[in-house]
Amino acid sequence: MIGKRKLLICSETDIPSVNMKIQLLKKREWEDIGRYGKNSFLMNGETVMMTTPDLHIRMEDVDQRIADAGIDVDEVIFMSRHSATSGEASLTVHPIGNFRENKFGGRERTLVRSDPALMSDALRKIARYNDLDNFRVCFEVTHHGPWLNKPTFFIEIGSDERNWGNEAAADILSDVLLDMEPNDYDTAVGVGGGHYAPRFTEVTLGFKINFGHMLPNYHLEGSSDEDIVRMVKDACEASDTNLVYMHRKSLKPAEEKRISELIRSAGFELITSSGLERINGN
User: Fold this and answer.
1) Is 0.90 topped by the overall pTM?
2) What pLDDT, on the 0 to 100 scale, is given for residue 281?
3) Domains in the chain, start-ordered, CATH in brackets?
4) CA-based angle 236:66:33, to the nearest 5?
């Protein structure tokens, strides 16, 4: 088999994943390049699509498994559903890994390499293509598995069974998957805010900056200085950057000052949107 750059992963147990695959099959000609074990592979240009019966978050070392099948890729995108008790309709992207425990796959206290340029472009294109008024477009912060070595992100339809089967949403995300392209903007790690990263989403949509890993308030709260430095360091290393963007307004003044000082003392550079170039010069 010929190695290709991107690997899209479709889980047969996941409705949005299957629907995205159906849309992709309609829009491009895909060559059947065979099976390896229980997984099947299709190829179009520089994109390989793998279909598997496995659940995404439990597919540990999937990049090694596809390498064993003779396929070499540079980055991996999981097509998936997003689950939330709110049930809010959403189109999301996010990096993966675990700042703490590994309840949902992956390795404890270990982050998977992020894919900032491609993931951030995917978010921008979702926002551009989305014509579904009731669907929220946003990042999610770093969470869950599986573990792998390649730069990775999830692209998802949420947040419950009322939305998972939405074919128009799958159509939008399939267009994004076909059109997304990396750019040469600087990369930052996000620190602070909530799970849906409102500030990092807003900044990405408005400015020439890409986000890699994102560390939310719920991991900062109650953490020691050493643990905060460890998480920021891991996030920067797995995003290949020394730039950190803080959601300052999400933190109490004393905590914002403490965390800022920790980040600077660890050798990382704090940036703000005032120093960033706006997209389209707006």
Assistant:
1) yes
2) 56
3) 6-179 (3.40.630.50), 186-281 (3.40.50.10700)
4) 130
